[in-house]
């Protein structure tokens, strides 16, 4: 009789467990839109995984990348909104603007915008964004002069500096103006080379090579995505090239000066996490990087026959 009672009790417990499981809330699956002018998703995905967001388990990523074709961003942004995402990560000023144009309610996280988000109208202020946009801003205009000064240190004074920028990319004009101001103060001639897409690189870099110029590459996701092509063409044409990101120096550019892409995307992922947990984009202050690193590619310096001053090498992270 006791065995029968225990069996009935066990069956009742099993039934209760099945009933509890059937009434349990399904796991929340977050739909995250990612809109970019280039193919720069890896660091963000890694950062999100570290925070517990696993694609196919509790996260669906809706990714749209223009790969340098900026004119595609408006339709891509509209497509992401139609797919009813919970949040949009927008990488680059044109992507942010495109997302902003199609929604005022879905939270938008800026992924390392290189323009002033207040002056661009994305947020009311850095401390109190006030709308549906917040995130990480790295105002490249501010450090463009410093970057040009670094390039000035390694090329002969008689040579001009060519600035590579992309037509239609809002990050370019401010950096070009800052570079012009720095060039004037240094007594340097400055040449602006505009490209629309990757097929234009060879012609632009050939123009710089014809003048034996140093090459200043503005901060731009398209250029970051095309870093191997740019570095190869620059080296083939004997150009000392200054870029922004360490990865670009590792790809073969002579020097880079800027913050860590990996660290910045970790901060972007943190914004996404906080908003998905209930925070309001309007209340989250915009963050800006505080640490900037100089990187020098020693193999590129050797190939160009350049002797970099020891004082500059001591300040730099070195790659080969």
CATH superfamily of the largest domain: Response regulator
Query: How many β-strand runs?
Result: 12
CATH topology of the largest domain: Rossmann fold
Q: What string, H for helix and E for strand, traces the elements in order?
A: HEHEHEHEEHEHEHEHHEHEHEHHE
Kindly report how far apart the N and C termini lie. Answer: 80 Å
What is the name of the CATH class of the largest domain? Alpha Beta
* Derived structural class: alpha/beta
- Count of individual helical segments: 13
Rg computed from alpha carbons, rounded to a whole number of angstroms: 25 Å
Estimate percent helicity. Answer: 40-55%
- What is the CATH architecture annotation of the largest domain? 3-Layer(aba) Sandwich
List the uncertain runs: 1-25
Approximate strand percentage: 15-25%
Spatial strand arrangement across the major sheet: 7-6-8-9-10-11-12
Structure description:
Helix 2 packs across helix 11 (261-276) and helix 7 (201-210) runs parallel beside helix 9 (227-236). By secondary structure, this protein is of the alpha/beta class. It has 2 domains: 30-138 and 261-283, Rossmann fold; 140-258 and 293-319, Rossmann fold. The chain has a 7-stranded mixed beta sheet with strand order 7-6-8-9-10-11-12, sandwiched between helices. It has a 5-stranded parallel beta sheet with strand order 2-1-3-4-5, sandwiched between helices. The model is unreliable at 1-25 (pLDDT under 50). Strand 6, helix 6 and strand 7 form a beta-alpha-beta unit. It is built from 13 helices and 12 strands.
